[in-house]
TrEMBL record:
The active site is at residues 96, 165. Substrate binds at residues 11-13, 171, 211, 232-233. It catalyses: D-glyceraldehyde 3-phosphate = dihydroxyacetone phosphate. The gene is tpiA. Pfam families: TIM. SUPFAM superfamilies: Triosephosphate isomerase (TIM). This is Triosephosphate isomerase. It comes from Candidatus Dehalogenimonas loeffleri. Belongs to the triosephosphate isomerase family. Pathway: Carbohydrate biosynthesis; gluconeogenesis; Carbohydrate degradation; glycolysis; D-glyceraldehyde 3-phosphate from glycerone phosphate: step 1/1. The keyword Heme does not apply. Involved in the gluconeogenesis. Catalyzes stereospecifically the conversion of dihydroxyacetone phosphate (DHAP) to D-glyceraldehyde-3-phosphate (G3P). GO terms for molecular function: triose-phosphate isomerase activity. Its EC number is 5.3.1.1. CDD domains: TIM (cd00311).
Length: 250
């Protein structure tokens, strides 16, 4: 099968104020403006989306939000809806393990968020992944299938990316091996195929996330079922993030 376009997404998490975000994004833009073979997505904190949207007008760099609430509007103090985001960014991260852990997001909440984003034409980067205990007791497959089937339930063929992020690999420097990550990516593709058909599974972008850096990225994307990466820590330094992209650019 022909290799799909590589996607490299940056998740800045709760880092950068507005000035820092503009500075970091500007440095990246300067280095990456010539590269069109990699789909590059930056997911800054909400407060910087508008400014970065202006900065990236007429460039190939895309923007994503890190979260979204599932209702469109109303009395939900502190929340941001897909309706508010849809003219600011093209992507949104949903179901990240940090949100599942710190904000008690269940698969049911994740499903509603996915539905809301898809309805408004924002592409979700849907994160799934097992924790260390589940990994050590060989429950990875079961956890991934459950998160996928619950998260995607009730959705019509969604325009979506799925990121496999084993929790034990996030921010630890203990990246999953490319072979292991590819096995789970392949499971994700098969499960998606069972839900939405083989053709859809064939073109589904599947990313790996968890301690990705410029030294290990090439091995991940050389695997048949991995189409790119969701990068945390290494996306906060322009030089490191740019090196990751340059390693996979044609
Ligand atoms: O959580 C991640 C991206 O969403 C991965 O974070 P690190 O790249 O810092 O391990």
């Amino acid at each position: 099968m022909e290799k799909r376009k590589i996607v490299i997404a940056a998740n800045w998490k709760m880092n950068t104020n507005l000035d820092e975000a503009v500075e970091l994004a500007s440095e990246m833009l300067f280095e990456l403006s010539e590269i069109d073979s990699v789909e590059t997505i930056l997911c800054p904190p909400f407060i910087s989306l508008q400014k970065l949207k202006e900065l990236f007008t007429d460039t190939r760099i895309k923007l994503g939000a890190q979260n979204v609430f599932y209702e469109e509007k109303g009395a939900f103090t502190g929340e941001i809806s897909a309706l508010m985001l849809h003219d600011l960014c093209q992507y949104v991260i949903i179901g990240h393990s940090e949100r599942r852990q710190y904000f008690c997001e269940t698969d049911e909440i994740v499903q509603k968020k996915l539905a809301s984003a898809v309805n408004l034409g924002i592409k979700p980067i849907f994160c799934v992944g097992e924790n260390l205990e589940q990994y050590q007791s060989e429950q990875t497959e079961e956890v991934i299938i459950t998160q996928l089937t619950r998260g995607l339930s009730g959705l019509k063929l969604p325009d979506i990316l799925i990121a496999y992020e084993p929790i034990w690999a996030i921010g630890t420097g203990q990246a999953a091996s490319a072979v292991e990550a590819n096995e789970v990516a392949s499971l994700i593709r098969r499960t998606f195929g069972e839900l939405f058909g083989l053709d859809a599974a064939g073109v589904l972008p599947v990313l790996y996330g968890g301690s990705v850096n410029a030294d290990n990225i090439a091995e991940y994307v050389s695997k048949t079922d991995i189409d790119g990466a969701l990068v945390g820590g290494a996306s906060l330094k322009s030089s490191q993030f740019v090196s990751i992209i340059k390693r996979v650019a044609l």
